[in-house]
Design goal:
Layout (H helix, E strand, L loop, with lengths): L7 E6 L13 H9 L3 E6 L13 E4 L5 H17 L4 E5 L2 H14 L2 E5 L15 H16 L2 E4 L2 H10 L7 E3 L14 H11 L6 E6 L11 H9 L6 E6 L5 H8 L5 E5 L7 H6 L2 E4 L8 H8 L4 E4 L4 H5 L6 E2 L4 H13 L2 H18 L2 H11 L1
Parallel strand pairs: 1-2, 1-4, 2-3, 4-5, 5-6, 6-7, 8-9, 8-11, 9-10, 11-12, 12-13
Helix pairs in contact: 1-14, 2-3, 7-12, 10-13
InterPro entries: Glyco_trans_1, Glycosyltransferase_grp1
Keywords: Transferase
Protein name: Glycosyl transferase family 1 domain-containing protein
């Protein structure tokens, strides 16, 4: 294959900046790997994108102060890409761009692949789905059926998303999320100790880390009861560190008021997360609803033992034989699983973490996921 014959793709990035707290911060490493296989244009919609990205032929910013300004810049970007021979788009979540791509497809003759994982159907007890939620679902249903392919992962979510959005199985595509194993990695013991001391974590403390959106769907209301149950059963102190923002933050702050062993850090830029993972003793994800949670990949790559529910594709991510996958909403099982990890020797926890890291590097490397996307294209 000559350079002129290489596949061309426009990869739409909803948000990119140095302070990025969402999983879009992972995309530059992935695009660098993808750029070794295909020609890539990155289309960045919000944030403060850099002028260049490794492996990317061109970075196009459609950032604007108003929705109309972003729409105009997006249309100009589509015209440029069509003239340059780019007629395949990969879109993550961005609905305005997706609608524009579908409407202009007859003119520019491009293909659109939409990534979507997770259902967001759960409503907390006592609440009802709002009219806006119902309208959003209706629009998402129409859009999912208009694209050339609906891309999702991991394996469990292919059937879930096909049924959820009534997309024919022939239009479904499997694609993993990826993790940069160089950025999310274990720390040497001396550096790990330094991180713990800077954070005020005691040498004898068992530190549980939660990183996610603070919402009912992510199981945040199970955190305080779980911490209470653990305190009575372990011979050493326990500390819960909560990273994230969301509607449940006031609820957690009320429960955590006056407690020295529960720290709510709020949102942390993704670039600053690796030391937190590497210095903790256990990662906890008690979600009721998930798709393909990148936080599991971050913990796995950091060699951090995990306790999770089987929500969405979580069991596919950690591996079907992983011992600490609990039923959704089962507080007793989650507590017992964390207890078991806490009672392990440091060597046993390290072995469990190493097992997860090996899986992360083998199954979810940017290089492997880039090959998967190239096969889809």
């Amino acid at each position: 294959m000559t350079l002129a014959d290489r596949t061309k793709i426009v990869y739409a990035i909803p948000h990119l900046s140095g302070e990025e707290t969402e999983h879009f911060a992972h995309l530059p490493a992935f695009l660098e790997a993808l750029g070794r296989r295909v020609d890539v244009v990155a289309l960045v919609e919000r944030g403060t994108p850099p002028a260049t990205l490794p492996g990317v032929k061109r970075v196009i910013s459609t950032v604007g102060r108003t929705r109309l300004a972003r729409l105009h810049r997006s249309l100009e970007a589509l015209r440029f890409c069509a003239r340059a021979g780019y007629r395949t788009y990969f879109v993550r979540y961005s609905r305005q761009l997706l609608i524009l791509l579908i409407l202009t497809s007859p003119f520019f003759r491009h293909r659109v692949f939409l990534w979507r994982s997770g259902t967001a159907d759960l409503v907390e007890p006592g609440a009802r789905k709002t009219l806006r939620h119902r309208l959003d679902n209706g629009l998402n249903y129409l859009l999912a059926r208009c694209v050339h392919g609906l891309v999702t992962g991991p394996e469990t979510m292919v059937e879930v998303m096909s049924a959820r959005w009534r997309v024919p199985r022939r239009k479904m595509r499997l694609l993993y999320n990826d993790i940069d194993g160089d950025r999310f990695a274990p720390l040497p013991p001396s550096e790990r100790d330094q991180v713990r001391r800077r954070r005020g974590w005691g040498d004898d403390e068992f530190v549980i880390l939660f990183v996610h959106r603070l919402s009912f769907r992510r199981g945040t209301r199970l955190l305080a009861p779980l911490l209470d149950a653990l305190e009575s059963g372990l011979p050493h102190p326990v500390r819960l560190v909560v990273v994230g923002e969301g509607p449940d933050r006031p609820y957690l702050e009320r429960l955590g008021a006056g407690r020295s062993n529960m720290r709510i850090m709020g949102a942390v830029p993704n670039r600053d997360l690796p030391p937190l993972y590497a210095a903790a003793d256990c990662f906890l994800m008690p979600s009721y609803e998930e798709g393909f949670p990148r936080v599991l990949l971050e913990a796995m790559s950091s060699a951090l033992p995990i306790v999770t529910t089987g929500a969405g594709g979580s069991a596919d991510v950690v591996g079907k034989d992983y011992p600490f996958v609990c039923d959704v909403g089962d507080l007793e099982a989650l507590t017992e699983a964390v207890n078991q990890v806490a009672r392990m020797s440091p060597r046993e926890r390290a072995d469990l973490g190493d097992r997860l890291r090996i899986r992360a590097l083998d199954e979810f490397s940017p290089q492997r996921v880039a090959r998967m996307l190239e096969d889809i294209l």
